[in-house]
Design goal:
The structure holds two protein chains of two kinds.
Chain A (H helix, E strand, L loop, with lengths): L1 H10 L5 H29 L8 H14 L1 H33 L1 H14 L8 H8 L3 H25 L3 H9 L5 H35 L7 H10 L3 H29 L4
Helix pairs in contact in A: 3-11, 4-5, 4-7, 4-9, 6-7, 7-9, 8-9, 9-10, 9-11, 10-11
Chain B lengths: L4 E12 L2 E13 L4 E5 L6 H9 L6 E6 L2 E2 L7 E4 L11 H12 L7 H11 L15 H14 L4 E5 L7 H18 L2 E6 L2 H7 L2 E5 L6 E6 L11 H11 L5
Parallel strand pairs in B: 3-8, 3-9, 6-7, 7-8
Antiparallel strand pairs in B: 1-2, 1-4, 4-5, 9-10
The chains are: A mainly alpha, B alpha/beta.
Protein backbone atom coordinates (compact mmCIF):
# COMPACT_ATOMS: atom_id res chain seq x y z
CA UNK A 1 0.00 0.00 0.00
CA UNK A 2 2.76 2.41 1.01
CA UNK A 3 4.60 2.07 -2.26
CA UNK A 4 1.40 2.61 -4.21
CA UNK A 5 0.76 5.90 -2.39
CA UNK A 6 4.28 7.04 -3.21
CA UNK A 7 3.76 6.27 -6.87
CA UNK A 8 0.55 8.26 -6.90
CA UNK A 9 2.31 11.21 -5.24
CA UNK A 10 5.01 11.09 -7.84
CA UNK A 11 2.55 11.02 -10.72
CA UNK A 12 0.52 13.97 -9.42
CA UNK A 13 3.62 16.07 -9.10
CA UNK A 14 4.07 15.67 -5.35
CA UNK A 15 7.79 15.32 -6.00
CA UNK A 16 8.28 19.07 -6.49
CA UNK A 17 9.42 21.30 -9.31
CA UNK A 18 11.46 18.73 -11.20
CA UNK A 19 8.38 16.62 -11.72
CA UNK A 20 6.37 19.67 -12.80
CA UNK A 21 9.05 20.66 -15.28
CA UNK A 22 9.23 17.15 -16.67
CA UNK A 23 5.47 17.13 -16.98
CA UNK A 24 5.51 20.46 -18.85
CA UNK A 25 8.17 19.27 -21.27
CA UNK A 26 6.30 16.01 -21.83
CA UNK A 27 3.08 17.88 -22.55
CA UNK A 28 4.80 20.26 -24.96
CA UNK A 29 6.58 17.45 -26.80
CA UNK A 30 3.35 15.46 -26.91
CA UNK A 31 1.44 18.37 -28.37
CA UNK A 32 4.03 18.85 -31.14
CA UNK A 33 4.06 15.12 -31.96
CA UNK A 34 0.25 15.07 -32.06
CA UNK A 35 0.26 18.13 -34.34
CA UNK A 36 2.65 16.51 -36.83
CA UNK A 37 0.64 13.25 -36.63
CA UNK A 38 -2.64 14.98 -37.46
CA UNK A 39 -0.92 16.87 -40.28
CA UNK A 40 0.60 13.63 -41.60
CA UNK A 41 -2.71 11.76 -41.52
CA UNK A 42 -4.41 14.69 -43.23
CA UNK A 43 -1.69 14.70 -45.91
CA UNK A 44 -2.08 10.96 -46.51
CA UNK A 45 -5.83 11.19 -47.15
CA UNK A 46 -5.53 14.25 -49.45
CA UNK A 47 -3.26 15.02 -52.35
CA UNK A 48 0.27 16.41 -52.18
CA UNK A 49 -1.03 19.66 -53.78
CA UNK A 50 -3.53 20.27 -51.02
CA UNK A 51 -1.45 19.35 -47.99
CA UNK A 52 2.21 18.39 -48.42
CA UNK A 53 3.50 15.47 -46.33
CA UNK A 54 5.96 16.14 -43.48
CA UNK A 55 8.85 14.20 -45.09
CA UNK A 56 8.56 16.24 -48.30
CA UNK A 57 8.67 19.46 -46.31
CA UNK A 58 11.63 18.19 -44.29
CA UNK A 59 13.41 17.32 -47.53
CA UNK A 60 12.99 20.87 -48.85
CA UNK A 61 14.29 22.30 -45.60
CA UNK A 62 17.33 20.02 -45.49
CA UNK A 63 18.19 20.69 -49.14
CA UNK A 64 17.79 24.47 -48.83
CA UNK A 65 19.72 24.58 -45.59
CA UNK A 66 22.53 22.60 -47.21
CA UNK A 67 22.60 24.80 -50.32
CA UNK A 68 22.44 27.93 -48.17
CA UNK A 69 19.31 29.18 -49.90
CA UNK A 70 17.45 29.56 -46.60
CA UNK A 71 20.14 31.92 -45.35
CA UNK A 72 20.21 33.89 -48.60
CA UNK A 73 16.45 34.38 -48.42
CA UNK A 74 16.50 35.28 -44.71
CA UNK A 75 19.26 37.80 -45.50
CA UNK A 76 17.16 39.35 -48.28
CA UNK A 77 14.12 39.62 -46.02
CA UNK A 78 16.16 41.13 -43.19
CA UNK A 79 17.19 43.94 -45.55
CA UNK A 80 13.68 45.39 -45.28
CA UNK A 81 12.50 43.74 -42.05
CA UNK A 82 15.17 45.40 -39.89
CA UNK A 83 15.01 48.96 -41.26
CA UNK A 84 11.21 48.83 -41.48
CA UNK A 85 10.86 47.62 -37.90
CA UNK A 86 13.43 50.07 -36.50
CA UNK A 87 12.27 53.17 -38.36
CA UNK A 88 8.57 52.42 -37.80
CA UNK A 89 9.09 51.63 -34.11
CA UNK A 90 11.29 54.67 -33.53
CA UNK A 91 8.81 57.06 -35.13
CA UNK A 92 5.86 55.34 -33.45
CA UNK A 93 7.48 55.65 -30.01
CA UNK A 94 8.47 59.27 -30.58
CA UNK A 95 5.04 60.38 -31.80
CA UNK A 96 3.26 58.22 -29.18
CA UNK A 97 5.28 59.78 -26.36
CA UNK A 98 4.60 63.26 -27.72
CA UNK A 99 0.85 62.66 -28.03
CA UNK A 100 0.70 60.95 -24.64
CA UNK A 101 2.49 63.80 -22.90
CA UNK A 102 1.26 66.96 -24.61
CA UNK A 103 -2.41 67.87 -24.76
CA UNK A 104 -1.71 70.09 -27.77
CA UNK A 105 -0.04 67.24 -29.63
CA UNK A 106 -2.96 64.98 -28.72
CA UNK A 107 -5.44 67.48 -30.15
CA UNK A 108 -3.49 67.96 -33.37
CA UNK A 109 -1.32 64.96 -34.23
CA UNK A 110 -3.56 62.63 -32.22
CA UNK A 111 -6.61 63.70 -34.20
CA UNK A 112 -4.91 63.02 -37.52
CA UNK A 113 -3.73 59.67 -36.16
CA UNK A 114 -7.29 58.65 -35.36
CA UNK A 115 -8.21 59.26 -38.99
CA UNK A 116 -5.29 57.27 -40.38
CA UNK A 117 -5.41 54.42 -37.88
CA UNK A 118 -8.29 52.45 -39.46
CA UNK A 119 -6.45 52.20 -42.82
CA UNK A 120 -5.21 48.61 -43.15
CA UNK A 121 -1.41 48.68 -43.59
CA UNK A 122 -1.63 46.61 -46.77
CA UNK A 123 -3.81 49.28 -48.36
CA UNK A 124 -0.63 51.36 -48.51
CA UNK A 125 0.98 48.87 -50.91
CA UNK A 126 -0.02 50.85 -54.06
CA UNK A 127 1.64 53.93 -52.62
CA UNK A 128 4.66 51.91 -51.58
CA UNK A 129 5.06 50.84 -55.20
CA UNK A 130 4.62 54.35 -56.60
CA UNK A 131 6.81 56.05 -54.04
CA UNK A 132 9.58 53.49 -53.68
CA UNK A 133 9.20 51.05 -56.58
CA UNK A 134 9.80 47.33 -56.14
CA UNK A 135 12.61 47.88 -53.69
CA UNK A 136 13.57 47.00 -50.15
CA UNK A 137 12.48 50.52 -49.24
CA UNK A 138 8.95 49.79 -50.51
CA UNK A 139 8.62 46.64 -48.43
CA UNK A 140 10.26 48.37 -45.45
CA UNK A 141 7.65 51.13 -45.76
CA UNK A 142 4.79 48.64 -45.30
CA UNK A 143 6.53 46.98 -42.36
CA UNK A 144 7.25 50.40 -40.85
CA UNK A 145 3.56 51.34 -40.96
CA UNK A 146 2.63 48.23 -38.99
CA UNK A 147 5.42 48.83 -36.48
CA UNK A 148 4.51 52.51 -36.21
CA UNK A 149 0.95 51.97 -35.02
CA UNK A 150 1.72 49.26 -32.50
CA UNK A 151 4.51 51.32 -30.95
CA UNK A 152 2.49 54.52 -31.15
CA UNK A 153 -0.37 53.16 -29.04
CA UNK A 154 1.85 51.43 -26.52
CA UNK A 155 3.97 54.55 -26.06
CA UNK A 156 0.90 56.74 -25.72
CA UNK A 157 -0.66 54.54 -23.05
CA UNK A 158 2.69 54.08 -21.31
CA UNK A 159 3.14 57.82 -21.01
CA UNK A 160 -0.48 58.28 -19.98
CA UNK A 161 -0.14 55.84 -17.09
CA UNK A 162 2.86 57.52 -15.45
CA UNK A 163 2.20 57.84 -11.71
CA UNK A 164 1.45 61.57 -11.14
CA UNK A 165 3.09 61.33 -7.70
CA UNK A 166 6.42 60.58 -9.41
CA UNK A 167 6.12 63.75 -11.48
CA UNK A 168 5.35 65.74 -8.32
CA UNK A 169 8.34 64.28 -6.50
CA UNK A 170 10.60 65.07 -9.46
CA UNK A 171 9.40 68.67 -9.45
CA UNK A 172 10.01 68.97 -5.73
CA UNK A 173 13.55 67.72 -6.35
CA UNK A 174 14.30 70.42 -8.87
CA UNK A 175 13.15 69.07 -12.24
CA UNK A 176 11.62 72.14 -13.80
CA UNK A 177 11.35 71.84 -17.57
CA UNK A 178 8.91 69.61 -19.44
CA UNK A 179 11.69 68.15 -21.53
CA UNK A 180 13.62 67.10 -18.48
CA UNK A 181 10.53 65.62 -16.82
CA UNK A 182 9.98 63.49 -19.91
CA UNK A 183 13.58 62.35 -20.03
CA UNK A 184 14.03 61.67 -16.32
CA UNK A 185 10.60 60.37 -15.28
CA UNK A 186 8.14 59.81 -18.12
CA UNK A 187 10.38 57.77 -20.42
CA UNK A 188 11.93 55.50 -17.76
CA UNK A 189 8.52 54.73 -16.32
CA UNK A 190 7.10 54.00 -19.80
CA UNK A 191 9.93 51.62 -20.73
CA UNK A 192 7.88 48.46 -19.95
CA UNK A 193 5.12 49.57 -22.35
CA UNK A 194 7.67 50.67 -24.96
CA UNK A 195 9.22 47.22 -24.80
CA UNK A 196 5.86 45.48 -25.09
CA UNK A 197 5.09 47.58 -28.16
CA UNK A 198 8.41 46.83 -29.79
CA UNK A 199 8.11 43.12 -29.09
CA UNK A 200 4.59 42.94 -30.50
CA UNK A 201 5.67 44.94 -33.55
CA UNK A 202 8.66 42.67 -34.18
CA UNK A 203 6.28 39.70 -34.35
CA UNK A 204 3.69 41.45 -36.50
CA UNK A 205 6.43 42.65 -38.84
CA UNK A 206 7.24 39.03 -39.79
CA UNK A 207 3.57 38.47 -40.59
CA UNK A 208 3.25 41.53 -42.79
CA UNK A 209 6.61 40.91 -44.44
CA UNK A 210 5.16 38.02 -46.43
CA UNK A 211 2.46 40.29 -47.81
CA UNK A 212 4.85 43.19 -48.37
CA UNK A 213 7.09 40.99 -50.54
CA UNK A 214 4.05 40.25 -52.70
CA UNK A 215 5.08 43.36 -54.61
CA UNK A 216 8.00 41.42 -55.95
CA UNK A 217 10.73 42.35 -53.48
CA UNK A 218 13.02 39.34 -53.01
CA UNK A 219 12.90 37.48 -49.69
CA UNK A 220 11.19 34.59 -47.93
CA UNK A 221 7.73 35.90 -48.69
CA UNK A 222 8.35 36.29 -52.42
CA UNK A 223 9.95 32.84 -52.57
CA UNK A 224 6.86 31.45 -50.86
CA UNK A 225 4.53 33.16 -53.36
CA UNK A 226 6.60 31.99 -56.34
CA UNK A 227 6.46 28.40 -55.08
CA UNK A 228 2.71 28.66 -54.62
CA UNK A 229 2.35 29.72 -58.28
CA UNK A 230 3.99 26.42 -59.25
CA UNK A 231 1.88 24.51 -56.69
CA UNK A 232 5.06 23.54 -54.81
CA UNK A 233 3.17 23.36 -51.55
CA UNK A 234 6.01 21.56 -49.77
CA UNK A 235 8.21 24.62 -50.39
CA UNK A 236 5.43 26.92 -49.18
CA UNK A 237 5.06 24.87 -45.99
CA UNK A 238 8.82 24.73 -45.45
CA UNK A 239 9.16 28.52 -45.55
CA UNK A 240 6.11 28.95 -43.35
CA UNK A 241 8.06 27.00 -40.77
CA UNK A 242 11.14 29.17 -41.38
CA UNK A 243 9.08 32.30 -40.66
CA UNK A 244 7.75 30.64 -37.51
CA UNK A 245 11.28 29.97 -36.31
CA UNK A 246 12.39 33.53 -37.15
CA UNK A 247 9.42 34.84 -35.17
CA UNK A 248 10.35 32.75 -32.14
CA UNK A 249 14.02 33.73 -32.34
CA UNK A 250 13.23 37.44 -32.56
CA UNK A 251 10.73 37.19 -29.74
CA UNK A 252 13.16 35.36 -27.44
CA UNK A 253 15.93 37.81 -28.22
CA UNK A 254 13.78 40.84 -27.38
CA UNK A 255 12.40 39.10 -24.30
CA UNK A 256 15.95 38.49 -23.07
CA UNK A 257 16.76 42.19 -23.57
CA UNK A 258 13.53 43.09 -21.81
CA UNK A 259 14.30 41.14 -18.65
CA UNK A 260 17.79 42.62 -18.55
CA UNK A 261 16.61 46.21 -18.91
CA UNK A 262 13.59 45.74 -16.65
CA UNK A 263 15.45 44.04 -13.81
CA UNK A 264 13.87 46.57 -11.43
CA UNK A 265 10.39 45.17 -11.97
CA UNK B 1 15.55 83.14 8.92
CA UNK B 2 14.09 82.44 5.53
CA UNK B 3 12.38 79.10 5.95
CA UNK B 4 9.20 80.09 7.75
CA UNK B 5 5.93 78.73 6.42
CA UNK B 6 3.05 81.16 6.69
CA UNK B 7 -0.58 80.67 5.67
CA UNK B 8 -3.00 83.61 5.91
CA UNK B 9 -6.70 83.13 5.24
CA UNK B 10 -6.09 80.29 2.83
CA UNK B 11 -9.09 78.68 1.14
CA UNK B 12 -9.51 76.21 -1.66
CA UNK B 13 -12.63 75.57 -3.68
CA UNK B 14 -12.70 72.85 -6.32
CA UNK B 15 -15.00 72.70 -9.29
CA UNK B 16 -16.92 69.55 -8.41
CA UNK B 17 -19.36 67.61 -10.58
CA UNK B 18 -22.30 69.17 -8.72
CA UNK B 19 -20.96 72.69 -8.38
CA UNK B 20 -18.08 74.10 -6.35
CA UNK B 21 -16.71 72.07 -3.42
CA UNK B 22 -14.96 73.91 -0.61
CA UNK B 23 -12.10 71.82 0.80
CA UNK B 24 -10.58 74.32 3.25
CA UNK B 25 -11.48 77.83 4.41
CA UNK B 26 -9.76 80.62 6.35
CA UNK B 27 -6.72 78.51 7.19
CA UNK B 28 -4.09 80.56 8.99
CA UNK B 29 -1.06 79.27 10.85
CA UNK B 30 2.70 79.62 10.74
CA UNK B 31 5.66 77.32 11.27
CA UNK B 32 8.86 78.73 12.72
CA UNK B 33 12.33 77.72 11.56
CA UNK B 34 13.43 74.42 13.05
CA UNK B 35 9.99 73.68 14.40
CA UNK B 36 8.21 70.32 14.13
CA UNK B 37 4.56 71.10 13.46
CA UNK B 38 1.86 68.54 12.79
CA UNK B 39 -1.49 69.09 11.16
CA UNK B 40 -4.10 66.65 12.47
CA UNK B 41 -7.64 66.25 11.35
CA UNK B 42 -10.17 63.62 10.41
CA UNK B 43 -10.16 62.36 6.85
CA UNK B 44 -11.94 64.85 4.64
CA UNK B 45 -10.78 67.77 6.76
CA UNK B 46 -8.71 69.11 3.91
CA UNK B 47 -5.39 68.69 5.68
CA UNK B 48 -3.93 67.05 2.58
CA UNK B 49 -5.21 69.94 0.50
CA UNK B 50 -3.37 72.35 2.80
CA UNK B 51 -0.26 70.17 2.45
CA UNK B 52 -0.46 70.20 -1.34
CA UNK B 53 -0.89 73.97 -1.39
CA UNK B 54 2.21 74.48 0.79
CA UNK B 55 4.08 72.00 -1.41
CA UNK B 56 3.09 74.05 -4.46
CA UNK B 57 1.25 71.15 -6.09
CA UNK B 58 -2.04 73.05 -5.97
CA UNK B 59 -2.89 76.73 -5.79
CA UNK B 60 -5.08 78.35 -3.15
CA UNK B 61 -8.22 80.06 -4.35
CA UNK B 62 -8.15 82.50 -1.42
CA UNK B 63 -5.53 83.89 0.91
CA UNK B 64 -1.73 83.86 0.83
CA UNK B 65 0.86 81.13 1.27
CA UNK B 66 4.45 82.10 1.85
CA UNK B 67 7.56 80.06 2.38
CA UNK B 68 10.61 82.07 3.41
CA UNK B 69 8.80 85.38 2.74
CA UNK B 70 8.16 84.40 -0.89
CA UNK B 71 4.72 83.42 -2.19
CA UNK B 72 4.57 79.75 -3.18
CA UNK B 73 4.35 79.39 -6.96
CA UNK B 74 5.11 75.70 -7.40
CA UNK B 75 7.05 72.78 -5.97
CA UNK B 76 10.74 73.32 -5.43
CA UNK B 77 13.88 71.93 -3.83
CA UNK B 78 13.49 74.22 -0.80
CA UNK B 79 10.69 71.91 0.37
CA UNK B 80 11.45 68.19 0.45
CA UNK B 81 8.39 65.97 0.19
CA UNK B 82 7.63 62.56 1.68
CA UNK B 83 4.38 60.81 0.83
CA UNK B 84 2.31 58.00 2.34
CA UNK B 85 2.67 56.12 -0.93
CA UNK B 86 6.46 56.33 -0.96
CA UNK B 87 6.55 57.48 -4.63
CA UNK B 88 10.06 56.12 -5.12
CA UNK B 89 11.23 55.82 -8.72
CA UNK B 90 10.85 52.06 -9.20
CA UNK B 91 13.50 51.89 -11.94
CA UNK B 92 16.15 53.40 -9.71
CA UNK B 93 17.96 51.70 -6.86
CA UNK B 94 17.73 53.18 -3.38
CA UNK B 95 20.98 55.06 -4.01
CA UNK B 96 19.68 56.11 -7.43
CA UNK B 97 16.55 57.54 -5.84
CA UNK B 98 18.60 59.50 -3.31
CA UNK B 99 20.85 60.73 -6.13
CA UNK B 100 17.91 62.07 -8.18
CA UNK B 101 17.69 65.53 -6.65
CA UNK B 102 21.49 65.87 -6.66
CA UNK B 103 21.49 65.23 -10.41
CA UNK B 104 18.95 68.01 -10.80
CA UNK B 105 20.24 70.76 -8.53
CA UNK B 106 23.72 69.55 -7.63
CA UNK B 107 25.08 68.57 -4.22
CA UNK B 108 24.96 71.01 -1.28
CA UNK B 109 28.09 73.20 -0.83
CA UNK B 110 31.25 71.36 0.27
CA UNK B 111 29.83 67.92 -0.56
CA UNK B 112 30.07 65.55 -3.51
CA UNK B 113 27.18 63.64 -5.05
CA UNK B 114 28.55 60.29 -3.92
CA UNK B 115 29.40 61.52 -0.44
CA UNK B 116 25.98 63.10 -0.03
CA UNK B 117 24.19 59.90 -1.13
CA UNK B 118 26.21 57.83 1.36
CA UNK B 119 25.60 60.35 4.12
CA UNK B 120 21.82 60.43 3.61
CA UNK B 121 21.59 56.65 3.34
CA UNK B 122 23.43 56.13 6.61
CA UNK B 123 21.33 58.84 8.23
CA UNK B 124 18.24 56.68 7.65
CA UNK B 125 20.05 53.36 8.20
CA UNK B 126 19.88 52.17 4.60
CA UNK B 127 23.59 52.03 3.74
CA UNK B 128 23.37 48.28 3.20
CA UNK B 129 20.35 48.55 0.89
CA UNK B 130 21.90 51.11 -1.49
CA UNK B 131 21.83 48.81 -4.50
CA UNK B 132 18.37 47.35 -3.97
CA UNK B 133 15.32 48.30 -5.98
CA UNK B 134 12.23 49.70 -4.21
CA UNK B 135 10.20 46.53 -4.87
CA UNK B 136 12.76 44.58 -2.83
CA UNK B 137 12.21 46.73 0.27
CA UNK B 138 9.73 46.52 3.13
CA UNK B 139 7.27 49.36 3.67
CA UNK B 140 9.38 50.84 6.44
CA UNK B 141 12.55 50.74 4.36
CA UNK B 142 10.76 52.41 1.46
CA UNK B 143 9.72 55.27 3.73
CA UNK B 144 13.31 55.60 4.95
CA UNK B 145 14.48 55.76 1.34
CA UNK B 146 11.88 58.46 0.64
CA UNK B 147 13.14 60.50 3.58
CA UNK B 148 16.76 60.09 2.45
CA UNK B 149 15.81 61.22 -1.06
CA UNK B 150 14.07 64.32 0.29
CA UNK B 151 17.01 65.17 2.57
CA UNK B 152 19.64 64.75 -0.15
CA UNK B 153 19.31 68.26 -1.61
CA UNK B 154 19.40 69.64 1.95
CA UNK B 155 16.06 71.50 1.89
CA UNK B 156 15.40 73.73 4.93
CA UNK B 157 11.86 72.34 5.08
CA UNK B 158 10.53 68.79 5.05
CA UNK B 159 6.85 68.28 4.18
CA UNK B 160 5.49 64.87 5.15
CA UNK B 161 1.99 63.67 4.23
CA UNK B 162 0.96 60.69 6.40
CA UNK B 163 4.32 59.06 5.71
CA UNK B 164 3.87 56.24 8.22
CA UNK B 165 0.16 55.53 7.71
CA UNK B 166 0.74 52.20 5.98
CA UNK B 167 3.53 50.68 8.08
CA UNK B 168 2.93 48.38 11.04
CA UNK B 169 2.87 49.71 14.61
CA UNK B 170 6.35 48.49 15.60
CA UNK B 171 8.03 49.87 12.48
CA UNK B 172 6.12 53.08 13.01
CA UNK B 173 7.51 53.48 16.53
CA UNK B 174 11.05 52.92 15.23
CA UNK B 175 10.54 55.37 12.39
CA UNK B 176 9.25 57.97 14.86
CA UNK B 177 12.42 57.75 16.94
CA UNK B 178 14.59 57.87 13.84
CA UNK B 179 12.75 60.83 12.37
CA UNK B 180 13.14 62.78 15.61
CA UNK B 181 16.85 62.09 15.75
CA UNK B 182 17.24 63.11 12.09
CA UNK B 183 15.27 66.27 12.83
CA UNK B 184 17.47 67.10 15.80
CA UNK B 185 20.64 66.37 13.86
CA UNK B 186 19.71 68.28 10.71
CA UNK B 187 17.69 71.15 12.31
CA UNK B 188 15.05 70.92 9.58
CA UNK B 189 11.67 72.59 9.78
CA UNK B 190 9.14 69.78 9.54
CA UNK B 191 5.48 70.07 8.64
CA UNK B 192 3.83 66.70 9.17
CA UNK B 193 0.27 65.73 8.27
CA UNK B 194 -1.49 62.83 9.98
CA UNK B 195 -4.82 61.58 11.28
CA UNK B 196 -3.06 59.66 14.07
CA UNK B 197 -3.36 61.80 17.21
CA UNK B 198 -0.86 59.82 19.25
CA UNK B 199 1.69 60.18 16.45
CA UNK B 200 1.08 63.93 16.38
CA UNK B 201 1.48 64.31 20.15
CA UNK B 202 4.61 62.15 20.19
CA UNK B 203 6.39 64.07 17.45
CA UNK B 204 5.32 67.69 17.52
CA UNK B 205 6.35 70.98 19.04
CA UNK B 206 2.91 72.24 18.09
CA UNK B 207 -0.22 70.55 16.77
CA UNK B 208 -2.52 72.34 14.34
CA UNK B 209 -6.00 70.86 14.69
CA UNK B 210 -8.25 70.86 11.61
CA UNK B 211 -12.03 70.56 11.81
CA UNK B 212 -14.10 68.42 9.50
CA UNK B 213 -14.58 69.74 5.98
CA UNK B 214 -14.51 72.34 4.78
CA UNK B 215 -11.46 72.22 7.01
CA UNK B 216 -10.21 75.08 9.07
CA UNK B 217 -7.89 75.50 12.04
CA UNK B 218 -9.87 75.07 15.26
CA UNK B 219 -6.90 75.14 17.66
CA UNK B 220 -3.12 75.07 17.89
CA UNK B 221 -1.93 72.99 20.82
CA UNK B 222 1.60 72.84 22.26
CA UNK B 223 3.17 69.40 22.47
CA UNK B 224 4.21 67.97 25.85
CA UNK B 225 7.25 69.82 27.28
CA UNK B 226 9.62 66.84 27.59
CA UNK B 227 11.74 65.21 24.85
CA UNK B 228 12.15 62.32 24.29
CA UNK B 229 8.52 61.87 25.09
CA UNK B 230 7.03 59.42 27.50
CA UNK B 231 3.72 58.17 26.16
CA UNK B 232 2.61 57.20 29.67
CA UNK B 233 3.25 60.62 31.24
CA UNK B 234 0.48 62.86 32.53
CA UNK B 235 1.46 65.66 30.12
CA UNK B 236 1.29 63.29 27.16
CA UNK B 237 -2.18 62.09 28.13
CA UNK B 238 -3.41 65.62 28.74
CA UNK B 239 -2.19 66.86 25.35
CA UNK B 240 -3.71 63.84 23.67
CA UNK B 241 -6.99 64.47 25.46
CA UNK B 242 -6.97 68.12 24.40
CA UNK B 243 -6.56 67.18 20.72
CA UNK B 244 -9.06 64.34 20.99
CA UNK B 245 -11.72 66.63 22.48
CA UNK B 246 -12.13 68.22 19.04
CA UNK B 247 -13.00 64.90 17.42
CA UNK B 248 -15.58 63.60 19.87
CA UNK B 249 -19.23 64.24 19.20
Amino acid sequence: MASETNTTDYLTGGGGFDTDDARTVALQAGALVAFVAVWWVGALVTSQNILPRPPAVAQVLVADLASGQVFTLVGQSLRHYVPGLLVGSGLGMAVGVLVGWSQTADNTVGTVAQFLRPVPPLAWIPFAVIWFGLTDAGAAFIIAIVAFWINYYNAESGVGSVDPALLEVAQSLGTTTDRRLVRKVVLPSAVPELFTGFRTAAGQAWMVMVAAELLGVPGIGKHLWDAANFLQMDVVMAYMLVIGVLFLLTDRLIKAGQSRVLAWR
Amino acid sequence: MTDTIRLAGVGKTYDGEHGPVRAIRHVSFAVDPGEFVTVVGPSGSGKSTAFRIIAGLETATEGAVEVGDEPVTGPGPDRGMVFQDDALFPWRTVAGNVRYGLEEVGPPPDTTVGGRVDHCLSLVGLADAADQYPRELSGGMRQRAGIARALAVDPPILLMDEPFASVDARTKATLHRELLSIWQETQKTILFVTHDIEEAVYLSDRIVVFSEGPGTVVDVIDGPPDRPRDKTSEAFRETKGAVLSYFEE
